[in-house]
Amino acid sequence: MPLLGKIIKRAIDLGEQITDNSKTPQEHQEEVLKKLLKKAKDTAFGKFYQFEQLLESDSPIEEFRKKVPAFDYHRMHDAWWFKTVEGEVDITWPGQPEYFALSSGTTGNKSKRIPVTQEMIEAIRETGVKQVLSLSEHDLPDSFFEKQILMLGSSTDLEEVNGHYEGEISGISASNIPFWFKGYYKPGEDIASIEDWDERVLAIAKQAPSWDIGAISGIPSWIELMLQKVVEHNKAETIHDIWPNLMVYNSGGVAFEPYRASFDALTSKPMLYLDTYLASEGFLAYQARPNDQMAMQLSIDSGIYFEFIPFKEEYFDENGSPIEDAPALSLSEVNEGEDYAMLISTVSGAWRYSIGDTIAFTNLERAEIKITGRTKHYLNVVGSQLSVSKMNEAVQELEEAFGLQIPEFTVGAVKKDGEFIHQWFLGLAGDQKASESEVSQKLDEVLKSKNKNYKVARSKALKGIDVKLIKADDFHDWNGKNKKKGGQVKTPRMMNEETLLEFEEFVRTK
């Protein structure tokens, strides 16, 4: 076996063995919170909320959640971060951040500017190293550890604005990769800096045969399109005709399962699919070991303190933001299998900040989670209480029942003839076809079996569902119309009635 690969794998094995496992996840988290409070106690935010006194209390965790309200982006920005954007120092974190991550989530609204400090960049690197160390848990050959890694995110050509740099978090991270990693990193600095996504992907497709890729990282929808382009441009059957040593795909940003069938169609060899949770606010979790649920371990000791709000309607406003005094739990207080909305406090000066995602714990001892949806993407107009995780499961059953690949979908509650229905758009890969009426009937049956609230709603105010089968490319074109392609851009799994009607008109007139 290759000597270099053997050496690297042995180093990874040793690194995994010396990782500190002597503390519980809760003990790690208590340390993180105290370090955050101590570092930020002399900032404007720390003085306002009396961090010095919190540190002197017998129970900093309890006092922290009593004194500091829950924030969403708009509350944090309007009260504090706008000063940071304007160049003021020591607002919610010491100094002034060098970067701001631009994020519009899945809404297409005006970009948010989220501070990214040097400490956060180091924390992201640290968590990335831990993910690399965790590869020793998987059955990978020594030769894998010599292969190149393709990271497809947003452009690394960041924009300089008033003394700081702005871009999506994937572009910021890629522009700060450590020197020792550059020999493995693809597409390389020149291609990664191309602003136009289509041009960047074409450049990748042209160079692809000269690379020896072992792993790929990025959001599934854009990675899938990139792989299709590479295969088509090089007149290949599957991606393994070009990269025969490709073994690992690190997914992220959205649940991977809806994309599995279409990914499998692009490959001819077994793939190891791993999940990651890199948000604009930080590297929150990664898949640390093999498991059937693709559950991820929270990054419990890398500059992020986590809290969890039980996902109940009375704790959130109509926009999915937590009310300021919503009850929050620490790691020692949560239960497995229940949905929670996350609050994070970080080394970038986010405090009790709603990340907007809902999660469920799959293993408390290991602090492992899976993403179940979004706080604002919870279809409950007529009491159906339909979560994204249940939608994903239902779509997977449709794929199996009809032999389809449905990598993209969205749904919304709309009124037709004065009554509510759920309007679904399912994006099919390639030129696949099916009967819309048969798919509608099956989807309705599956959702009734998976969600008792949906079943009750269907007997009352929710009069039916309507499925329209469209091309998956329609979703990508819609994203391209509303905001730039690639990077952190994700298809919204739920749309309000106005946006859904706009989407329907866009598809109809394409």
Number of strand elements: 18
Number of helices: 17
CATH class of the largest domain: Alpha Beta
Structural class, please?
alpha/beta
Tell me the count of domains: 2
Question: In CATH, what is the homologous superfamily of the largest domain?
Answer: ANL, N-terminal domain
Query: What is the name of the CATH topology of the largest domain?
Result: Rossmann fold
Coarse morphology: globular
CATH architecture of the largest domain: 3-Layer(aba) Sandwich
Low-pLDDT runs: 1-9
Q: Indicate the radius of gyration in whole angstroms.
A: 23 Å
Strand content: 15-25%
**Overall mean pLDDT:** 85
- How far the N terminus sits from the C terminus, by CA atoms, comes to 53 Å
Amount of helix: 25-40%
In the sheet with the most strands, the strands line up as 6-3-7-8-9-10-11-15-14-13-12
Q: Main sheet? A: 11 strands, mixed
Provide the fold topology:
Layout: H1 3-17, H2 25-40, H3 44-48, H4 51-56, H5 60-67, H6 73-85, E1 99-103, E2 112-116, H7 118-133, E3 148-151, E4 159-161, E5 164-167, H8 169-174, E6 185-186, H9 189-192, H10 197-207, E7 213-217, H11 220-233, E8 248-252, H12 260-265, E9 272-279, E10 282-286, E11 296-298, E12 304-310, E13 339-346, E14 353-363, E15 368-374, H13 388-402, E16 408-416, E17 419-428, H14 436-450, H15 452-458, E18 462-471, H16 472-482, H17 497-508
Parallel strand pairs: 1-5, 3-6, 3-7, 7-8, 8-9, 17-18
Antiparallel strand pairs: 1-2, 4-5, 9-10, 10-11, 11-15, 12-13, 13-14, 14-15, 16-17
Characterise this structure.
The chain contains 17 helices and 18 strands. The strands form 3 sheets. An 11-stranded mixed β-sheet has the order 6-3-7-8-9-10-11-15-14-13-12. The protein is globular and about 65 Å long. The longest helix is centred in the first third of the chain and has 16 residues, at 25-40. Helix 13 crosses helix 14 and helix 14 crosses helix 15 (452-458). The chain is 35% helix and 22% strand. The chain folds into 2 domains: 1-376, Rossmann fold (3-Layer(aba) Sandwich), CATH 3.40.50.12780; 388-508, Alpha-Beta Plaits (2-Layer Sandwich). The chain has helices at 3-17, 25-40, 44-48, 51-56, 60-67, 73-85, 118-133, 169-174, 189-192, 197-207, 220-233, 260-265, 388-402, 436-450, 452-458, 472-482, 497-508, and strands at 99-103, 112-116, 148-151, 159-161, 164-167, 185-186, 213-217, 248-252, 272-279, 282-286, 296-298, 304-310, 339-346, 353-363, 368-374, 408-416, 419-428, 462-471. Mean pLDDT is 85; it is low at 1-9. The chain is an alpha/beta fold and 510 residues long.
